[in-house]
Amino acid sequence: MRLLLEGRVRSATGEDAEKATSGRLYELVCRVVPGEFAVSESGAYLEYIGPEGTFSTEDMADGMKLFSVLKILMDGEKLPIGSVLLLDDPDVHMHPEWQNILAEVIVLLVKQAGVRVVMTTHSQQLALGVQAMSERYGQHVDYYHFLRGEDGSTECEDVTQNIGRIYEEMAAPYSAIANVLWSDIPE
Q: Of 85, 169, 171, 187, which alpha carbon lies 20 to 30 A from 34's?
């Protein structure tokens, strides 16, 4: 499933640039990554300096790395209004609680910071989170479903008006394994 969130494209002003690092958006990112970043003494890698101590960002969990990149981009004002952020399965290896936070961050990047986001996901949790947060904040989201055709081609379907179709497909593997788990075991 792919999601496309588009905000109004505006020209950047000092006030607009501050929106990415103020308020709820930045608070959410800092909840996951409360520390700061610095180049190591050797200059070979980036260090995270947080409440738990200092360590290489290479040693971070994947989910924390994603939030770290977002924080670094926001701190450096590298997400100007109208920029496009591509997220390919950002939920991989991410705890469901962080997926909820990520969903809100994504919607607020669009709503408050004017960033355009294109995201793919196979996570019901993240998709539902984006849907819930987009409704909470009044931010329009377009949903697209990509399917492999019988001839190997890729087909794109706009399912914005029927997002339940995506959830049904995502739930199918869970239903299949649940049927194995809860079916009568032959003797």
A: 85
Whether residue 49 contacts residue 37, with contact meaning beta carbons closer than 8 Å, is answered with yes
Question: In sequence order, what are the beta bridge partners of 71?
Answer: none
Neighbours of 111 (CB within 10 A): 20
> Is the distance from CB of 27 to CB of 35 less than 8 angstroms?
no
A 10 A CB-CB count for 175 gives 9
Region for 134 from its dihedrals, namely left if φ exceeds 0, alpha if ψ lies in -120 to 50, beta otherwise: alpha
* Backbone angles phi and psi of 157, in degrees to 5: -125, 130
Residue 5 predicted with pLDDT over 70: no
Chain position carrying tokens 């920029």: 83
Question: Model-level pTM?
Answer: 0.82
Q: Name the token pair of 137.
A: 């904040």
DSSP 55-105: EEGGGS-HHHHHHHHHHHHHHTT-S-TT-EEEEESTTTT--HHHHHHHHHH
φ, ψ of residue 145 in degrees (nearest 5):
-120, 125
The pair of three-digit structure tokens given for residue 33, joined into one six-digit string:
């990554």
pLDDT tens for 58-81 read 999 999 999 999 999 999 888 889
Q: Is 64 left (phi over 0), alpha (psi -120 to 50) or beta?
A: alpha
